[in-house]
Amino acid sequence: MLKVLSIFGTRPEAIKMAPLVKALAAQSGVASKVAVTAQHREMLDQVLSVFAIKPDYDLDIMRPEQTLEDVTSAALRGLSSVIADWQPQLVLVHGDTTTTLAGALAAFYAKTPCGHVEAGLRTADKYAPYPEEINRRLTAALADWHFAPTPAAEQNLLKENVAREKIFVTGNTVIDALLDVSQRECDLSQYGLRQVDWQKRVILLTCHRRENWGRPMHDIFQAVKGVLERYKDVEVVFPVHKNPLVRVIAHQVLGGLPRARLVEPLDYLPFCHVLRRCHLVLTDSGGLQEEAPALGKPVIVLREVTERPEALEAGTAVLAGVGTASVRAALEGLLFDKALYEKMARAVNPFGDGQAAQRITEVIMKNFG
Ligand code: UD1
Ligand code: UDP
Q: What is the CA(37)–ligand 1 centre distance, in A?
């Protein structure tokens, strides 16, 4: 049996690794185990429960207001012990979080081959997003196998002299997850969303990135507030990230405003259904830039740069920056320019077809099986 250890620790990694964990579990000849750092706790557990994944190892490292140094050191020590204990023949990490980097480094220290899922995303700015851009570049240097979601991601890796035969373009596993979960039944009234008037134009807002903490986040929310106050047929659904630094600003600026529904982070199932029913998405999230176009929802990206230029090229997303004026202009543009809205809603999703996990599993079996 080929022993494969999948490592993740935060909500988005869990969502994107879940289809692969399932595909590996179903693959004959593979002994698959899951190690979670639990860099996130509640938000990770929500995903584990939706996908019915029971981790074999749970390091439970999350602490309130943890620093990058806390997470890096606890994850590295814990994951090194897991690798020493089970002795996998292949370690899989995902994306660009601190867990990703620690997992790839732990595999390297143990001289265990490492596969990087969602490899090759780049902005070329080492501080945007911070620290993810450097996490993924370092992970690429440590990894042996690179599962790139798109041809553009493959090109980024080739430019960094990663060997062509070690790169596999697979699509993004988030589309596998989305297509699976969004087909399931869901009653949205259970999730603090009873008051939402779906006849109005509902903006789905998420915002959590480290580089947006403080002033940028405040300015973004001011733009949202301005739009809500001016246009009575607009509502906002904002599942607020668990990070206390995000929660304070969100509630300060948007709390108590009519038609601003600030709710707890949603389980992936209701979240997919909100995504399906909303009018547009306003977000600094990485994953949402990929998911929203699969359901025909235009995305306004709350960043100065994106590592997903495919979305801009395909016309499924626009970059709004993080200033009050630019965010408000982007919002009003999409709310009132019908032709622009239709064009973005109809653009073809460039991020995958729902078969990524199967492709990655096939590559693993061909090369190791
Ligand atoms: C992390 C990732 C980021 C990813 C994001 C997804 C790093 C450096 N950052 O950022 O790349 O986009 O997750 O959401 O890896 N908290 C809870 N409960 C939870 C989760 C978080 O209370 O379930 C609070 C804790 O106080 C924790 C804080 O949020 O200390 C920050 O969590 P952390 O994982 O360090 O950073 P994120 O900003 O969530
Ligand atoms: N998501 C969720 N519930 C929420 C908000 C987001 O399930 O309340 C999902 C979303 O569909 C996407 C992922 O979480 O797949 C994005 O996570 P996040 O924004 O935390 O991280 P990022 O994508 O920025 O790394």
A: 12
Instruction: Give the residue from 313, 322, 315, 319 showing the smallest Cα distance to 339.
Output: 315
> Exposure string (b/e) for 197-206, b if CB count within 10 Å is 16 or more?
eeeebbbbbb
Calculate how far, in angstroms, residue 84's C-alpha sits from the geometric centre of ligand 2. Answer: 31
Confidence at residue 241, expressed as pLDDT on a 0 to 100 scale = 98
- Residue 168: pLDDT above 80? yes
Summarised one tens digit per residue, pLDDT across range 2-56 is: 999 999 999 999 999 999 999 999 999 999 999 999 999 999 999 999 999 999 9
Q: Which atom of ligand 1 is nearest to the CA of 66?
A: 30
Active site residue 210: yes
Residue 117: name the closest of 167, 44, 75 by CA.
Answer: 167
Distance CA 113, CA 89 (A): 7
| Ligand 1 lining (C-beta closer than 6 Å) | 10-12, 39-43, 62-66, 68, 71, 97-98, 131-132, 208, 210, 242-244
Please pick, among 13, 94, 116, 118, the residue that the annotation labels catalytic: 118
Query: How far, in Å, is the centroid of ligand 1 from the Cα of 75?
Result: 14
Ligand 2 and 72: CB distance under 6 A? no
- Contact call for residues 328 and 225 (beta carbons, < 8 A): no
pLDDT band at 191 (very low <50, low <70, confident <90, very high): confident
pTM exceeds 0.85, yes or no: yes
How does pLDDT run across 225-268, given as a tens digit for each residue?
Answer: 999 999 999 999 999 999 999 999 999 999 999 999 999 999 99
96 included as an active-site residue: yes
Adjacent-strand bridge partners of 146: 116, 167
Whether 223 contacts 302, CB under 8 Å: no
Which residue has tokens 């029913």? 277
> Which residues, other chains included, contact 235 with Cβ-Cβ below 8 Å and sequence gap of 6+?
196, 197, 200, 201, 202, 203, 228, 259, 260, 261
> What distance in Å separates the CA atoms of residue 359 and residue 20, rounded to the nearest whole number?
9
What would the DSSP string read from start to end of 17-28? Answer: HHHHHHHHHHST
